Batch of 2 targets.
Target 1
Amino acid sequence: MYETQKKAVIETALKIREYGLIALAGGNVSMRLPDGDILVTPSGTYYETMRESDVLLMDSEGNIKEGDLKPSVDTIALLYIYKNMPEVNAIIHTHQTNATAVGLISDKLPAVTTTLSNVTLGEVNVAPYSSPASLNMGIETVKHINGKRAIILKHHGVVTVGGNLKEAMYAAIYMEESAKAYLLAKACKEPDVLTAEQSDNAAEIFKDVGQSK
Ligand SMILES: [Zn+2]
């Protein structure tokens, strides 16, 4: 079942891999289906050889309905996020270097570029440390994401969310670009940031960018 959606999950994973946001079998991609079931990438499996049948179908409690592999070890956190953020239908987790680095020196990635605000809807918080593969990873995400589409997990990586896979993917890729710009600037002096109005405006404008299909 859901071959098209499983394919979209793998294509999203390959896209973020193409941009260097995930290495080997790190991170995960998942989405919520209209009936409430969840598709999750498997644990410890390389994305470039992943097949549709490797993507797991589970109910909202994590009971596996399709798939023989073990799901991502972060599944307990992902299910918590889906349960507590009804507007979220896709989650991407990566260990992307630049955004993760920001989490080691700051409690947020400020809105330093319009691109960041376009995709994350503004500054991105850094959640306190939680163990990977723990329920706490989900709890800290929900607690600190503050209506944005991304959060940095201290000493770990990044979680991005969206109403669909594309929104979560854009948040991850463009946040990495903006995090890099922030770190480069910060090496010279404390970077200037957008005003709240400029940031909100950038988020608003981006809603009309691209082709509606
Ligand atoms: Zn991780």
Note: The chain has seven helices and nine strands.
Target 2
Amino acid sequence: MSRPAASDAPLPPASRPYHIAIVGAGMAGTTCARTLVQAGFRVSVFEQAAHAGGRMDHIDTSKGSFDSGVQFFTVRDPRFAQALDVTVPGLCRPWSATTIVVLDESGKKIARPNNQEPHWVACPGMGDLVRNWAAPLAQAGMLHTGTEVLAMERDRLQPAQWQLRVAGPEGSPSVFAGFDAVVLAIPAPAATQLLRSSAVQSPLLLPLSEVQMAPCWTLMLSYPQAMQPGMTTLGPNWNVASSTHHRIAWLARESSKPGRSLLERWTVHASADWSQKHLNDSPARVLAKLHKAFSEVTGIRVQPGHMDVRLWPHARTTAPLGQPFAWDSQEQFGICGDWCVGMRVEDAFLSGLELALAIAEQADHAH
Ligand SMILES: Cc1cc2nc3c(=O)[nH]c(=O)nc-3n(C[C@H](O)[C@H](O)[C@H](O)COP(=O)(O)OP(=O)(O)OC[C@H]3O[C@@H](n4cnc5c(N)ncnc54)[C@H](O)[C@@H]3O)c2cc1C
């Protein structure tokens, strides 16, 4: 197959009479879609959010932006390195987060491990990588954002094909039909729920339902008052820390990342255990508790100019599928995502890529 097209290059026209629906435009779904288009397939991607990116996202506020999900990513596979170099040269930059401080419950340093592996971030926000990759799909009319897939079912008139029931941008129900195959590039618990509520029978259901993912509450804080002359930061002299505090697992000074504004901002991830226990709490309650813990750990007691929380119900994999993707050749549907083998951005990229290559190989053998 040809090298990946630059993110703004027009996509090649479809040359194979095979239309594939992809549910989810995170890293895995977007990679899968781009690879299938380059192999000559026709694709339609359905994304419930307003834009592509999934857990690789940033939130823009009037008090600065926050990488609310992924903090940084590592690049170990040459195919991921090549895709980044060829399609978005210069968009990702190393972040000096190789020294991650480890803090105890009271915020005291207990270790300062040094990891030499480069930590990459997309600029100006983490979401820009997948959004850039998805842009040619959107321009070609292949990406339907604000469209939640509610069910997948056999087309009654053409039983060899799939149709999707969706809730469109205004919540309006509609049906997209005529798909030869469906790819679910969504977190495993969501895929299990979608397949069960659609009454799809497949041997993939059992291993899929055994995948486990933990939630994560994210706290975002902004301190415009730190921009006074002679002062650009508040509190600790470190930028990134993992913490053993019972509420908090991770803290990062957003303004220390390359390509961001200098406005003092912090992103804080609650621990998986605490997030699970407080899954159904109100955002206001979670915000108050996490802000208190943040003050204990960092010593920053001034009131932030902006505070918000966000819940990721399926943030990180705790029990993976154990293979890079799965494909049901009988039913012509597949599953991909980081949770197939791990919990990293690169795992999601490789899962989407390898599923697309397997679908292309199957089509080559069929002809
Ligand atoms: C808080 C947090 C911190 C993290 N930190 C790091 C880190 O530092 N480094 C790292 O490498 N990784 C990190 N990760 C993991 C990383 O985010 C994932 O590995 C990667 O983004 C997963 O991509 P994906 O495409 O598999 O899934 P997702 O990004 O979850 O994409 C799935 C997409 O499907 C959409 N969707 C779901 N259901 C439907 C439906 N029914 N209809 C239509 N669309 C649907 C979702 O909106 C989403 O856009 C972190 C994740 C979180 C949440």
Note: The first strand starts at residue 19 and ends at 23.
